[in-house]
Write a sequence for this structure.
């Protein structure tokens, strides 16, 4: 299996189209956001990870997402098993509680266990408006 994409987003919608096929509509994709109030602050963004399963694979996987701050320290972690029909795609919605003492960047390091490649997605918290 492979991670096809990983993004922070506000919403995901799946819709059928002729084929049969499915379209994935992602809205509000973000790589930064203004803090809702002066730090310290906790935010809970949605990370959407799209996964492909080849037709010759069993469809059982484990997604690990490790959130790291700018110093490389782990600030949150999520591990979730999943099943996907061989030859199809699935998505995992990961919601972490990220604490920021000040504006800065957190990176989500996403991989399929035990030995998948890592996909890294940054999210920068900006000063409040």
């Amino acid at each position: 299996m492979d991670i096809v994409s990983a993004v922070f987003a506000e919403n995901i919608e799946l819709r059928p189209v002729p084929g049969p096929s499915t379209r994935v509509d992602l809205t509000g994709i973000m790589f930064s956001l203004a803090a809702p109030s002066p730090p310290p602050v906790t935010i809970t963004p949605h990370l959407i990870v799209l996964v492909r399963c080849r037709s010759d694979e069993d469809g059982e996987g484990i997604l690990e997402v490790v959130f790291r701050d700018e110093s490389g320290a782990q600030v949150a972690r999520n591990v979730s098993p999943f099943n996907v029909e061989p030859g199809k795609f699935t998505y995992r919605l990961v919601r972490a509680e990220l604490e920021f003492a000040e504006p800065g960047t957190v990176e989500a390091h996403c991989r399929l266990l035990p030995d998948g490649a890592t996909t890294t997605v940054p999210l920068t918290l900006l000063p409040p408006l």
Remarks:
- The CA atoms of residues 44 and 72 lie 20 Å apart.
- The domain at 2-126 is CATH 2.60.40.2550 (Immunoglobulin-like).
- The two ends are 41 Å apart (CA to CA).
- The first strand starts at residue 2 and ends at 8.
